[in-house]
Design brief:
The chain is of the alpha+beta class. The structure holds zinc ion (ZN).
Length: 438
């Protein structure tokens, strides 16, 4: 996942918008026993998930950075895995879809005495990456796209949060987890197919700025107007307390009801309506295709060498797998799946629904009393008041803050220039800070 696109202060307001269950859809989903994976027991499926993650995070893959031998090693492994399941190549050269890009803007490297020939553009090498694309055997109708990016950060680079000597970034959660789950989905959907065609996409260049998925949308191997929906799995390996974030729920009017009806295992779905987010579904959303992005939440190992295989929650990945499998089968019953544009982040920034914001990233997967802070934006009211990552807001003024709803409600009545006393908990100690809203 490439996080620079996200705006959590705004995103959490969408948590309030989660809709009701449609009883009609409920029956569509309940009629499907997708847990009965033909030929393979659940234990066997889980073992396969692990096996694939272990392979994708192995030394040989060198952190799967786009344009490196590690990416190529991962691509060939994924290619042989999809082929073994009987899917058909749907790229530009068999399953491969090569794309080229310049990784950085022209560098300022010239020295006056070296002359103009040494400057700028000429020094920027093009990088080549490869998307991998597979189709289920021919059936007519509109496509569903099921995608996960397989590239990661290699030995580090700009997007890494690691400080120190370069080190391999295995990217177990980001996003070997998603690749392993789409392979498992492909297997189940080959053995027990649906009546609409499915395109499985393993994108590259995601960490460098959604480059592979963008390239696909500009150079699609199936017509874009024949794609009915896109489901993106990016970072699905760290499920905590049955919570699962789902982004893009506003991109079709019926996603929320369908999700609720397919959530037969009682996962705590944390929705966000926006079609624009920090991963490849954004490329499809911008082509007016309904999208969903599943995400099991942020963690301290994000974009670090410590995002390793043994930290993954494989039982949680099985739950994501089961939910998406049910969704795809339920979508089979739907004749229409209309697109709705969600308000994009830039527009929201211009017309915020609150006059003030704290300038924090709330941990919206946090399930206990209060609002836990996952990140603090420098120069904003929280940072100025000394609020730190990990703090839990318990009280604003005289009002107890039980959850994000309480927090949003208070924010809604505050005005710039006001000062609010906030009670926070830090490492088990309660303290009071004064926040001046700007
Ligand atoms: Zn990432």
């Amino acid at each position: 996942m490439a996080f620079r696109l996200i705006d959590f202060d705004i995103r959490i307001s969408n948590v309030l918008l989660w809709g009701a269950v449609s009883s009609g859809l409920l029956s569509a989903c309940q009629s499907t026993d997708s847990d009965a994976r033909p030929n393979k027991s659940l234990l066997e499926v889980e073992a396969l998930l692990r096996e694939r993650v272990v392979r994708l995070t192995s030394q040989e893959m060198e952190g799967r950075e786009t344009g490196t031998p590690g990416e190529w090693a991962a691509a060939t492994f994924i290619d042989s895995s999809f082929q073994a399941l009987g899917l058909l190549p749907k790229g530009d050269s068999l399953a491969y879809q090569p794309f080229s890009f310049k990784p950085h803007p022209p560098m300022q490297v010239h020295e006056p005495e070296e002359g103009i020939a040494q400057m700028g553009m000429a020094l920027v090498q093009e990088t080549r990456g490869y998307n991998l694309l597979y189709a289920t055997p021919a059936v007519s109708g509109k496509w569903g796209v099921i995608a996960a990016h397989y590239d990661h950060l290699g030995m580090g680079g700009d997007a890494s949060l690691h400080r120190g000597e370069p080190a391999p970034h295995p990217g177990a959660d980001d996003n070997a987890s998603g690749v392993a789950v789409i392979l498992a989905l492909a297997e189940g959907l080959m053995v027990e197919p649906v009546g609409h065609p499915l395109l499985f996409a393993a994108f590259s260049g995601e960490e460098k700025g959604l480059i592979g998925s963008n390239y696909f949308c500009e150079n699609p191997t199936v017509r874009l107007d024949s794609i009915r929906y896109m489901i993106n799995l990016d970072m699905v390996g760290r499920m905590h307390g049955d919570s699962l974030a789902v982004y893009g729920t506003g991109t079709s009017p019926r996603w929320q009801a369908l999700l609720d009806s397919c959530n037969t295992e009682g996962l705590i779905l944390v929705p966000s309506t926006d079609g624009v987010g920090p991963s490849d579904h954004t490329s499809f959303y911008l082509e007016n295709i309904p999208v969903l992005h599943f995400f099991t939440g942020q963690h301290a190992d994000y974009h670090k060498p410590t995002d390793t295989e043994e930290k993954l929650n494989y039982a949680g990945m099985m739950k994501v797998h089961a939910l998406v499998d049910r969704l795809v089968r339920a979508l089979e019953q739907e004749k229409e799946w209309p697109f709705v544009a969600t308000q994009d982040t830039t527009q929201k920034k211009k017309s915020p629904s609150f006059k003030v914001t704290l300038g924090v990233i709330p941990d919206y997967m946090y399930g206990e009393t209060g609002v836990k802070i996952d990140g603090v934006t420098a120069g904003r009211p929280a940072a100025k008041a000394g609020i730190q990552r990990g703090d839990i807001i318990l009280k604003m003024g005289d009002t107890a803050i039980k959850d994000l709803y309480d927090y949003m409600e208070i924010l809604g009545i505050l005005e710039p220039g006001m000062t609010t006393e906030m009670e926070i908990e830090r490492n088990g100690t309660t303290m009071v800070v004064k926040v001046t809203w700007d």
